[in-house]
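Worked example

This section walks through a single chain of length 443. The input is the sequence exactly as stored; nothing has been trimmed or padded.
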Amino acid sequence: MASTANRFSLSLPSVGSSTLKPKAFPGFFLKFENSNPLSLRVNRVAVSVSNGGVMRSARICASAPVIDQSVSEASPRAPTIVDVDLGDRSYPIYIGSGLLDRPELLQRHVHGKRVLVVTNSTVAPLYLDKVVDALTRGNPNVSVESVILPDGEKYKNMETLMKVFDKAIESRLDRRSTFVALGGGVIGDMCGFAAAAFLRGVNFIQIPTTVMAQVDSSVGGKTGINHTLGKNLIGAFYQPQCVLIDTDTLNTLPDRELASGLAEVIKYGLIRDAEFFEWQEKHMPGLLARDPSALAYAIKRSCENKAEVVSLDEKESGLRATLNLGHTFGHAIETGFGYGQWLHGEAVAAGTVMAVDMSYRLGWIDDSIVRRVHSILQQVKLPTAPPQTMTVEMFKSVMAVDKKVADGLLRLILLKGPLGSCVFTGDYDRKALDDTLHAFCKS
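Given that input, the structure is written out below as tokens.
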């Protein structure tokens, strides 16, 4: 059974915003927005095709830009916009350079007159003042508070979360307040969870500053904190008003953080976008060298992939779970080895290799995919095996409380079929899992 969404998106200057659904073209819509230059983009997306339990996706894109000669070269370039389609909770992802210098983008999504920016001790000196300026420039009625949390995965817990609530309550914020997450995935997850819980829900905005957050964690509304027994076990699905990705923030990102984020980019190609994976194989040197055009494309394509999945399966009943390739093994590494010892993407990279190894042992993929996965992860200098201190029993004990366990059965995301196809299943030979664990760990 296939679910297909077809989209024509037409951007015109100074038209206002409206959506037309012509009867002659069921499943299509025309969207008019204020933006320059004039452009026409046609997308046809076919997703979630189930064939013998294999989840596939196909994407056909055509782009035909028409340049508006009246637009000055000095004019700010319109951001790329990827829409997350969730009905009345839909929101845009803005992607581009210099977006923090475009106050209108943030201000249109602020509700009320009070804003709380949640950030950390690393990001605050770099971008907090710029964000406060973007929120208040030409907008004197808005007042901004901020709370600066310690930096690191080990602080993604209830104690640190309470610091956000403390600041919000001390500042007497109300239900029309807006929370703004400024930072990486840890900040985005905690700020979103705080927004979901404070006064039973206030608006929030994501401003991700790492590749990891820009291509994955800021999109889709997963929020939460860790527990000592497992990662991300406490949280809520809560969507932002918008995601603003200023690619200039990657200029200050350490190389290790850049590589960590690329693990999630690689994931999209493996599970649903073979063409994107092949592009990565050719352009990984440019991504590692921070080529602006390569990074912008990788972020855009990743966000498109995630937005499509989230639009179809917001609460992770099936299809969305496939975005967690390597995460069950990876979360076990993070929990067992200690939060913050490895970056999330490093743990996911090793977990991906383990998932691929298990897929091969089951006879679901050929060895060429195994080799290509090893090759691209080694090129990024990401781990291809768990830490030596991890044991089989450590993996099993943590995986037993994974969020994907249902009725005592551990379900895994595994590759099956050609590149770009995967399954989310509990129907696998348990011996293959044991063999993989023993191949990578001490007994």
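What to look for: The first strand starts at residue 3 and ends at 11.
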